[in-house]
Design a protein that fits this description.
Strand content: 15-25%
Low-confidence stretches: 1-11
Strand order of the largest sheet: 8-9-10-1-11
Oligomer: single chain
């Protein structure tokens, strides 16, 4: 039988070729169900379902425990404010709520308040207290620049403090600085010398610092009227972008943009737009019309006029304010009688006033 050796000699070659096909083709997979017994087929499907379920579960729990949601930088926020800015200037802003709010995000102080209310260094890199609280030595950060690109220097601190102390500038914060004088040690270090120890001096150093290369060229007479009061240059997280007025000169809007060179953690919101209104009714109308995304302080009696309240987040702030009635005893003899004053006191329904005027928020 001469053909047998030839047949057997070709068998290993075929086996070698077939052994290279390790993964079945699609048409072979399609035939798999017909080759299995029903019980085997159920087992295969159960295994596939378990594998898929396990994979999806792993992905789900891995996302929960290993991923966190984080805000994305960008966008714009528009807010309505009552009144208009006049002095976006740290040593004049305290007399106007609008000015004070804008100054706080455009300028930086040597120290700053944290969200919890404590105080920590801001423009100051560090500070030391010497001679039993009479001397404060403050060293500045070295990477801080003004919004126009100029570097922060000790001369800026000295100019700001001297201007705040000068009675000709008529600064509302002047009394806070009467207990101190300032000296320059070098371009990054200043020394404060107090007349007497003060536990509140750290708080005093939260005053925003002004750029001397801009304000030192402006006379005291023109200080309150100078253009930088409405086109400020600071070191804070936001910088001036644009301002618009109406035909009467009333400031209608102010636009700020994020300071890309900010020395600390940058805000996520890229642009801030503040729209200014003369009355609360106008500001509330802007909210109702969708022109703004937020409102500043407004009287609770106007809350009933606010539409879309379900879309709003209300934030209440406790303020140390007192409201009282003072009797002029020299004008009315009856008021000079203590018993009359006591009778008026007990006859006044204070709870009713708080309920109807302040919505029980006092």
């Amino acid at each position: 039988m001469p053909f047998l050796p030839q047949q057997f000699s070709t068998l290993p070659s075929n086996i070698e070729q077939n052994s290279k096909r390790r993964w079945p083709k699609w048409y072979q997979w399609r035939r798999l169900p017909s080759l299995l017994e029903p019980r085997e087929l159920y087992t295969v499907w159960a295994a596939i379902i378990i594998i898929l379920f396990s994979a999806l579960s792993w992905l789900f729990f891995d996302r929960i425990y290993n991923y966190t949601n984080a805000p994305e930088a960008g966008g714009e926020y528009r807010e309505a404010l009552i009144g208009q800015p006049r002095f976006i200037n740290p040593i004049l802003s305290e007399s106007n709520d609008v000015d004070r709010d804008l100054t706080s995000i455009i300028y930086s102080g040597l120290m700053k308040y944290t969200p919890s209310g404590s105080i920590e260094p801001d423009l100051a890199e560090s500070y030391e207290v010497e001679e039993e609280g009479l001397v404060y030595i403050v060293r500045l950060r070295d990477e801080v620049s003004w919004h126009d690109g100029r570097p922060l220097r000790a001369d800026d601190i000295i100019f700001t403090v001297n201007a705040a102390q000068n009675p000709d500038y008529k600064s509302p914060v002047r009394t806070n600085w009467q207990n101190a004088r300032i000296e320059k040690i070098d371009d990054r270090t200043v020394r404060f010398i107090l007349n007497q120890p003060s536990t509140s001096f750290i708080e005093t150093m939260t005053l925003g610092i002004m750029p001397s290369h801009i304000w030192s060229n402006i006379s005291v007479r023109n200080f309150a009227l100078a253009e930088p009061n409405l086109t400020p240059i600071g070191t804070g997280p936001y910088k001036f972008s644009n301002l618009s007025k109406d035909g009467t000169g009333f400031v209608r809007s102010l636009q700020l943009e994020v300071n890309d060179d900010y020395y600390d953690e940058k805000p996520y919101i890229k642009n801030l737009v503040f729209n200014f209104y003369e009355t609360e009714n106008e500001a509330i109308a802007a909210w109702n019309n969708g022109e703004v995304m937020g409102l500043s302080f407004f009287n609770l009696k106007n809350l009933k006029f606010l539409q879309r309240q379900t879309e709003a987040n209300f934030h209440k702030i406790t303020l140390p304010r007192f409201v009282g009635v003072f009797f002029n005893q020299t004008q009315h003899k009856a008021l000079a009688d203590k018993n009359v004053r006591l009778a008026l006191r007990y006859a006044t329904d204070k709870r009713s006033i708080i309920r109807e005027t302040l919505g029980n928020n006092a």
